[in-house]
Amino acid sequence: MKSLKNDLKAWLLLGSGLGMILLLMGYTFYIAVAQSFGLHNISGEQPHFTLLYWKTVLSDSVFQKSLLYSVKVSLLGAIFSIIVAYPIAMWLRKPIPGKVTIITILRAPMLVPGLVAAFLFINVISYHGILNESLVWLGIWAQPRTMQNDEFGWGVVILQMWKNIPFALILIGGAVNGLKTDLLDAAANLGSNAWQRFRYVIFPMTLGAVQVSFILIFIGALGDFAFYTIAGPRSTYSLARLMQMTAYQFEQWNQSAVMAMMIMLTSAFFTILISIIIRPLATKRGDIK
C-alpha cells in the first residue's frame, strides 16, 4: 500500500510537467493536422474537410524543389557531422595532454546561436571576406571569388557540421568511453588487429549512439531556419523558409500547415529508414577473419 502511494506521488509530480508538455505538443499537432485538411481556418472561413490544400502543395514545383533541397542538405550535414565526430571521439578516448581544454574548444559552437554563426560564416566567405582576402594575399587566387549562397548548399552543410559536430561528439563520445577496456583487450588477445577490433567490437556497440545522433541532427537540420535563410542559395527555399513565407507573406495558413506536416512526416520516414538500415549492422555474426 505504501509502495502504491509512493508510485502515485511520483506520477503526480511527473504529470505536472509532462502533462503540460503533452498538452502543448498535442494541441499544436492537432492544429497543424486540422489546418492541413481545412478543419481549422485562421482566416475565419467555414471549416470543412478537403484535400485541396494537400493537392496544391504536393503538386507545386517550388515545394518539390524545396523538399529535395532540404532533405539533401540535412542528410549531408548529418552524415558528415558523424563522419568527423567519430574519429575525434575515438581519439579523445585516449589519455592525451590538455584533453579537457580540447573538449571545451570542440563544444564551443554549441554556445553560439545559429543566426550569429550564419552571419559570421558569411563574413568569412563573402567576396571581400577574410578567406577571399587571405587567398588573394597569399597569391593562391588572382582575385576574390563568389562563395556565399552557393546553389548546391555547401555553405549550409558546413554550418550544420560546425554546429552539430559537438552534439554528435557528446553522444558518440559517451558510447565510445563506455566501452570496457577488458573487452578490447580480450579481442586483441584473440588475435584481432586494430581495424578488426573497430569493425567487430567498437562500431557495432556504438551504433546506437550513431543512430540517435544521426536522427536528431537530421531532424534539427530539416527544420532549421537561420542557416538556410542566411547562407542558403537565393534560387531555392528551404522547407522552413517556404513555410514561413506561405503563412506570413501570402497568408495561406492551410498550405503552410501542409508543409509543417510534410516536415514531420519526412522526419518520421527517415527516422524509421535509418533504424532499419542500422539495426542489422549492430549485430555481427560469424568468425573474425
Question: What does this molecule look like?
Answer:
The protein is 72% helix and 0% strand. The chain has a single domain, classed as Orthogonal Bundle (MetI-like fold). The protein starts with a helix and ends in an 8-residue tail after the last helix. With 289 residues, it is mostly helical. The chain contains 12 helices and no strands.
Largest sheet: none
- Rg: 24 Å
**What is the 3D form?**
globular
Strand tally is 0
Summarize the helix and strand pattern as letters. HHHHHHHHHHHH
What's the number of helices?
A: 12
Low-confidence parts lasting 5 or more residues at pLDDT below 50?
none
The total domain count is 1
What's a quick, concise take on this entry?
Helices cover 72% and strands 0% of the residues. It is mainly α and 289 residues long. α2 (52-58) packs across α12 (253-281).
Summarize the helices and strands and which ones pair or pack:
Layout: H1 2-36, H2 52-58, H3 61-92, H4 99-106, H5 114-125, H6 130-137, H7 154-177, H8 181-189, H9 194-222, H10 226-231, H11 239-248, H12 253-281
Keywords:
289 residues, mainly alpha, MetI-like fold, 72% helix
